[in-house]
Amino acid sequence: MTDRLHLAIIAGDGIGPEVIGQAVRVLEAVLPSGVDYTSTEYPFGAGHYLATGEVLSDESLAALKQHDAILLGAVGGDPADPRLAGGIVERGLLLKLRFALDHYVNLRPAEIVPGVASPLAQPGDVDFVVVREGTEGPYAGNGGVLRDGTPHAIATEVSVNTEYGVERVVRFAFELAQRRPRKKLTLVHKKNVLVFAGFMWQRVVDRIAAEYPDVVVDYLHVDAATIFMVTDPSRFDVIVTDNLFGDIITDLAAAIAGGIGLAASGNINPAGEFPSMFEPVHGSAPDIAGQGKADPTAAIGSVALLLEQSGHRDAADRVRAAVRADLDARGDVARSTSEIGDAIIARLST
Ligand SMILES: NC(=O)C1=CN([C@@H]2O[C@H](COP(=O)(O)OP(=O)(O)OC[C@H]3O[C@@H](n4cnc5c(N)ncnc54)[C@H](O)[C@@H]3O)[C@@H](O)[C@H]2O)C=CC1
Ligand SMILES: CC(C)CC(=O)C(=O)O
Ligand SMILES: [Mg+2]
């Protein structure tokens, strides 16, 4: 346990500030009194970029590195705004942070808890964790356009997979699987077509599996994984996968586990060389921004992951218990963002 938490808050765009407002209230309500806690808000996001021209300067990155953890809402503005073309904020801020802070583990748990309705006809057990690689794959920025603007333009987006990068995230996933009761790890890839990267992932999994003989190892092509996530989610325990597949299947995982408004995540730098960053799986949801409709539960669940990673396990458990109690009592009554925050805070045990 660390007794210092100097937190950076990037509330971001759209519903980001709405959900982060509630998440910070919860965090501050559960932090043990002896912790040296400070919070610093940073304005980064699409709005800040449009107002100032800064996405994330080197000085800002250096300032963020001084913190113990980062809590992020969501970034991204109107996709139709030509000034934001090319994912300038998503890539220049969010991905830049994940890469610069070496967040090679993108941890995304999915669980149906009592009181939560799943759209699945027969929900079964949804209780798995996706370990998504966070620094490589097609998101690494290796690509370009030839003959741009002509009828013969060629666009490439190269998936980068290093043995080093794959090995460290696969090892993390095995460690996690070994600590869980079912001890099962599923590699999700597309090795029947993406043979160069897929074979590397499989080879690394096979090699590391020898060190974890009590972990059952499975493989699924990503397309089949989406079938089983809907028809038989109980077959998953820990999933390890690359950056792109992990992005896609975790929105699906969120949907089957009660909705994107509930899905928390952590961008983890396991060795603690750099601050880890915690954020809901969802984006800035411009379609509901400013209406008090956003569910802050995903952001609050991300606070639980932050507390856990910072060594405050009791506080993390208190947040999770309060979220569970609230979900169990929620019913069909529509509540505003702040009403959900109030209800969860009221359920925090002492
Ligand atoms: N980590 C991040 O900062 C991310 C940013 N984005 C960015 O966010 C913007 C919008 O992206 P979309 O593809 O529309 O994905 P989105 O996740 O923002 O929204 C998808 C759907 O889920 C709903 N939704 C999302 N969060 C919710 C919540 N907490 N409560 C209730 N409903 C919620 C939205 O209203 C929308 O109908 C884009 O600019 C995108 O690039 C997208 C994903 C992640
Ligand atoms: C906006 C993307 C860069 C990120 C994303 O969708 C995610 O991490 O889930
Ligand atoms: Mg996503």
Automatic annotation (TrEMBL):
GO cellular component, one term: cytoplasm
Binding site for NAD(+): G283, S284, A285, P286, D287, I288, A289, G290, Q291, G292, K293, A294, D295
Molecular function as annotated in GO: 3-isopropylmalate dehydrogenase activity; magnesium ion binding; NAD binding
Subcellular location: Cytoplasm
Residues binding substrate, per UniProt: R98, R108, R132, D223
Assigned EC number: 1.1.1.85
InterPro entries: ICDH/IPMDH (IPR050501), IsoCit/isopropylmalate_DH_CS (IPR019818), IsoPropMal-DH-like_dom (IPR024084), LeuB_actb (IPR023698)
Reported cofactor(s): Mg(2+); Mn(2+)
Domain Isopropylmalate dehydrogenase-like per the UniProt entry, residue ranges: 6-344
Main subcellular localisation: cytoplasm
Pathway entry: Amino-acid biosynthesis; L-leucine biosynthesis; L-leucine from 3-methyl-2-oxobutanoate: step 3/4
Primary enzyme class: oxidoreductase
PROSITE patterns assigned to the protein according to its UniProt record, in alphabetical order: IDH_IMDH
Site entry: Important for catalysis: Y139, K190
Summary of subunit composition and partner proteins: Homodimer.
Record's function text: Catalyzes the oxidation of 3-carboxy-2-hydroxy-4-methylpentanoate (3-isopropylmalate) to 3-carboxy-4-methyl-2-oxopentanoate. The product decarboxylates to 4-methyl-2 oxopentanoate.
Family label: Belongs to the isocitrate and isopropylmalate dehydrogenases family. LeuB type 2 subfamily.
UniProt name for this protein: 3-isopropylmalate dehydrogenase
Protein species of origin: Pseudoclavibacter endophyticus
Origin organism lineage: Bacteria, Bacillati, Actinomycetota, Actinomycetes, Micrococcales
Gene it is expressed from: leuB
